[in-house]
Design brief:
Blueprint lengths: L10 H26 L6 H9 L8 H19 L1 H23 L4 H21 L3 H22 L8
Helix pairs in contact: 1-4, 2-3, 4-5, 5-6
């Protein structure tokens, strides 16, 4: 194949796909670790230990923050199987979309967008009543939206 016949992959798209591959590998590692290698912890005992300091008194603002973290942690333990298994599957789908975009195929963008938006929606459902969970989902949504917009700017280099 002649060099003029090939479409060169833009460096920015290469950088985005490499960052996505790295993030996907880290996400898969974390999901597998939480699914198969997590220790069972008594959440009520941990919550009690976090709630009381040496004097037995905690300022109300700090106590509310601690309660939010504890509620988030308990919800994460309670729904861990659902969230981690869906994260694992959706991350694999997302990486497939990234691979297609790396190969300059436009269908990868659609796969990437759908899998990443569902990956944000699932934790939102389970952490909706928790302030710390809402903060977590908001940060996750910010980075997801940022990558979707950055990939959208590269659609002109991809073919159908």
């Amino acid at each position: 194949m002649d060099r003029l016949d090939r479409i060169e992959r833009p460096r920015f798209l290469l950088m985005l796909t490499m960052l996505s591959f790295l993030g996907g590998i880290i996400s898969i590692r974390n999901a597998v670790k939480k699914l198969f290698f997590s220790d069972e912890v008594d959440s009520s005992e941990t919550a009690f230990n976090f709630s009381i300091d040496s004097n037995g008194e905690v300022p109300s603002f700090i106590q509310k923050m601690i309660d939010g973290v504890i509620d988030f942690w308990i919800a994460e333990q309670e729904y861990s199987l659902i969230i981690q298994s869906s994260t694992l599957l959706l991350t694999l789908a997302s990486l497939l979309g990234v691979y297609f975009m790396y190969s300059l195929k436009r269908k990868g963008f659609l796969i990437y967008v759908i899998s990443n938006l569902v990956m944000v929606i699932i934790p939102f459902i389970y952490y909706f009543n928790n302030t710390i969970g809402q903060l977590y989902v908001s940060i996750q949504f910010f980075f997801t939206a940022m990558f979707i917009f950055l990939y959208a700017s590269q659609l002109k280099y991809m073919s159908a």
